[in-house]
Write a structure and sequence with these properties.
heterodimer; A: 282 residues; alpha/beta; Rossmann fold; 2 domains; 8-stranded mixed beta sheet; 38% helix; B: 296 residues; 9-stranded mixed beta sheet
Chain lengths: 282, 296
């Protein structure tokens, strides 16, 4: 069964991907279900600035539950796994829902396609991680590599590269970690880039966190990105939260506690997340 | 999808004993105890990534060092003149195709070693009281094995259970393996240790059923395995079960105690407990544990 469908015919006459570029081809993987929607927002931003061509897709059969469809924001959704190409920068993007079954086969299908069509030599996964931090505090981009030599290459970008972590009991590794392991097995160097997102912004999006991640990609791939629009989004969100703090003394107190590194109780955290989501989405 | 061999044991006609986790881990505990008691050696394992999502990732100094999957391992041991292969899995693969593929991989290894007989072990949820010795429901995959299992001690066939009329289901790989084995011409028997209906809801393993399985395996394999470790553990667990039992409200316990008078095997007249009674007992137990977990 052919599971990966190429759309090469759509880009016919524009040259094969590897002919029009200078640096080693890299694959950036963005899962759509991500804390704070960081990965999708980064991909949306890059698409707007650089322009992507959809180049291929992975058929969902066998990888996703097709017993029915999910409804989100009043719309029927259907699982998607699209390969996009940024010809000018020699970047390939996988913009995909996370599969719900046959994970190992899916991840191999991704790498098969990327290697076969693009001769991909490096892998990057991007995403957010929820943290108990305040929205005005600086974010931190963390990296996990599957090959030691990559650490030195990431160090100049202000990325935290010395993380220790062991999956706690009852939790499972992320799909990105699984992909990095599969890539390591296949001899493809890769790194995971995660940026922390204040937990109360995870439902509304965190443009500051997206910007931190984009800055790393901007420098790594010499993209020459213009962040003006994103800066306006950041200002708008900060103003919204600021206004909510002025209106609600509890919210103000909770955020100040987070700024001072004081943990909130479960109910305080829930209230903060609920109020911020309600206010920002209004 | 493959099998990784650590060594190639020299075996002629071993029996395979396999178990996956299931209700109360009754079968898994029995098989793993036997494996440990005879000190069987690891010789192969199924590469797990095709079947399972990883359990844990280990990152040190920013680098992925390892990723851990549920293990599915083969062991072997010669016990006297008997050659044994054990297959012990830490998790069952998802149903359908993956289960079928894993069953075939296990049988590939078994056939490669010259295996002609397979045993699997699991639990049979039954209307018995925990003070009663659990019997073994033996379910062979070939007609010619019926007379053999009838000679096993403390063992019944499905047709001995009046209300079942020889029919039933074995969910998961402990059953599927024997179905696939039948298709591939390998004979095998599933040994299901009785677990009281209400104990299947308890958060403790039920070692009495595992012990019954091992006693039957001792007989079937013609070996004499020392069961004293399991007997001691079963006693300890039995005490925990008694404590949990004492926590059940007296009116529910009264219902459960009526199971002592039930013999659902070859029952000619309706027992003192009706199907309605059984349902009510189960509902009461479920309610009790739901309430307990809400109060935790």
């Amino acid at each position: 069964m052919t599971r990966v469908k190429s759309r090469e015919s759509r880009v016919e006459g524009r040259g094969t991907p590897e002919r029009s570029v200078s640096r080693l081809p890299a694959l950036i993987v963005a899962w759509r279900s991500d804390a704070g929607g960081i990965a999708p927002s980064v991909i949306e931003f890059l698409d707007k600035k650089l322009g992507f061509e959809v180049f291929g897709e992975i058929e969902p059969l066998g990888f996703f539950s097709l017993d029915g469809v999910r409804i989100e924001d009043d719309l029927i959704q259907f699982p998607e796994s699209r390969f996009c190409l940024c010809r000018a920068r020699n970047i390939i993007i996988l913009d995909s829902d996370a599969p719900s079954r046959e994970h190992y086969q899916f991840l191999n299908a991704v790498l098969d396609f990327a290697q076969h069509h693009f001769k991909v030599k490096e892998l990057y996964t991007i995403g957010g991680i929820v943290s108990a931090s305040a929205h005005l505090s600086p974010r931190q981009v963390f990296s996990v590599v599957n090959r030691r030599k990559l650490k030195g290459e990431l160090a100049p970008y202000g990325v935290e590269i010395n993380m220790d972590y062991q999956t706690p009991p009852g939790s499972m590794p992320t799909l990105s970690s699984f992909l990095l392991w599969v890539a390591k097995k296949r001899g493809i160097p890769g790194c995971g880039l995660w940026v922390n997102v204040p937990f109360y912004l995870s439902a509304v999006g965190d443009p500051t966190a997206s910007k931190y991640l984009l800055e790393v990609l901007d420098r790594r791939f010499e993209l020459g990105l213009d962040f003006k629009e994103l800066n306006r989004e950041i200002e708008k969100l900060n103003e919204d939260v600021d206004q909510l703090m002025r209106q609600d003394a509890d919210i103000s107190r909770y955020i100040q506690m987070l700024e001072r590194g004081i943990a909130l109780s479960e109910s305080e955290g829930e209230k903060l997340a609920q109020e911020v989501a309600g206010f920002v989405k209004r | 999808m493959g099998i990784k061999f650590h060594q190639q044991p020299e075996l002629e006609k071993p029996d395979l004993i396999a178990a996956w986790p299931g209700i109360g881990n009754v079968g898994l505990i029995a098989v793993d105890t036997l494996r440990g008691t005879v000190n069987a050696e690891l010789f192969a394992e199924i590469e797990p990534w095709d079947f399972f999502y990883p359990r844990a990732v280990s990152i040190r100094d920013g680098e992925i060092k390892d990723i851990a999957f549920p293990a599915c391992r083969f062991y072997f041991k010669k016990v006297g003149r008997k050659e044994l292969i054990f297959f012990v899995a830490e998790e069952q693969p998802g149903g359908g195709r993956k289960g079928y593929e894993m069953a075939n991989l296990v049988l590939d290894v078994a056939l490669l070693q010259g295996c002609e007989r397979i045993y699997t072990a699991a639990a049979a949820v039954a209307p018995i009281h925990h003070t009663m010795k659990p019997r073994i429901w033996a379910v062979p995959n070939a007609e010619e094995l019926v007379s053999e299992v009838q000679k096993y001690p403390n063992t019944i066939l499905m047709s001995d259970i009046k209300e079942r009329g020889g029919e039933g289901n074995i969910t998961g790989l402990n059953g599927l393996l024997l179905g696939v084995a039948r298709k591939r011409g390998l004979k095998g028997i599933c040994l299901l240790g009785e677990i009281p209906v209400y104990i299947s809801q308890f958060p403790t393993p039920y070692l009495e059923a595992s012990k019954s399985i091992l006693e039957v395996l001792n007989h079937a394999l013609g070996v004499r395995i020392d069961l004293s470790i399991l007997e001691r553990l079963a006693q300890e667990v039995g005490q925990s079960i008694e404590k949990l039992y004492e926590m059940i409200p007296p009116e529910i316990r009264e219902h459960i105690d009526r199971l002592k008078d039930v013999d659902y095997v070859r029952q000619e007249e309706p027992g003192v407990i009706t199907e309605e009674d059984k349902k009510r007992i189960m509902q009461n137990i479920e309610e009790f544990f739901k309430k307990g977990s809400r109060e935790d």
